[in-house]
Specification:
Length: 86
């Protein structure tokens, strides 16, 4: 097993979470702009924009959390591994 995999996995997880936040902010800005064009009416473009930005944001967030969990567990395993095999 590669012992140096924990830190890059944590970095990738953090970057994916940052990308998720960026996508969410872009979704909020785009939907507010789209809704401002037709105030008081339901707009199909808002739903499309929410799906266009929301699904990748959720996917990036989920994968980022998994990467952080895996990276943290690898770092902890490496730190507390006392060479006992059993």
């Amino acid at each position: 097993m590669n012992k140096g995999l924990g830190k890059p996995c944590c970095i990738a997880g953090g970057l994916l979470l940052a990308l998720s936040v960026l996508l969410y902010a872009a979704m909020e800005a785009a939907t507010r702009w789209e809704q401002a064009k037709t105030p008081g009416e339901k707009n199909l473009g808002v739903g499309v924009l929410a799906m266009l930005f929301g699904i990748p944001a959720l996917a990036c967030a989920a994968i980022g959390v998994v990467c952080l969990i895996v990276g943290a567990s690898l770092l902890l395993r490496r730190r507390f591994d006392l060479g006992v095999r059993g």
